[in-house]
Amino acid sequence: MSLTEVQTTIAAVADQVGPSVVAIGRRPRGSGLVVDGGRVLTNAHNLRGTQTTISFLDGRSQLGEVVGADLDADLAVLEVDTGSASFPAWGEGQLDLGAPVVALANPGGRGLRVTVGYVSGLDRVFRGPRGRRITGSIEHTAPLLPGA
After folding, report:
1. How far apart are CA 145 and CA 148, in angstroms?
2. DSSP label of 83
3. Measuring CA to CA, which residue among 55, 76, 54, 56 is closest to residue 67?
4. Which runs of consecutive H residues, i.e. helices, occur in the chain?
5. Letter string b/e over residues 6-24, b meaning 16 or more CB atoms within 10 A of that residue's CB
6. For residue range 32-51, what is the model confidence (pLDDT) as tens digits?
7. Which helix (H) or strand (E) holds 66?
8. Which of 20, 58, 65, 75 to pair with 43, CA 20 to 30 A apart?
9. Contact present, 37 and 82 (Cβ < 8 Å)
10. CA–CA separation, 62 vs 34, rounded Å?
11. Distance separating alpha carbons of residues 32 and 105, to the nearest angstrom
């Protein structure tokens, strides 16, 4: 695959998935992803309380409500009017070592940022933010930007 084809693929992923990447917080602390109509997934450490501002790439901001959080896994689900923001289809099939990955973020609410890498480990085990053991994780080399 040529570098031009790689660039085209990365741009296509950003165009397709980018509109579902949001900034979390009034002074954005992190990013999230529209995962279904009215639902955004983010890291629990991005939240301060049960409500937060969610900013979309189209410039719209909405107040979201926490409807579920797992502090040990550092994940939270927010309910919000996602408007016309689409959500990406989840991939199917086997993920292999060396598979390319694209990481998208809206750090600080300043627009879409993209990084790339590859799958470097499967079924990995690590300790979550509160020390809980998390198994079955995918390890990758795509740099995660501050606020991602």
Report:
1. 5
2. T
3. 76
4. 3-17
5. eeeeeeebbeebbbbbbbb
6. 999 999 999 999 988 989 99
7. strand 61-70
8. 58
9. yes
10. 13
11. 8
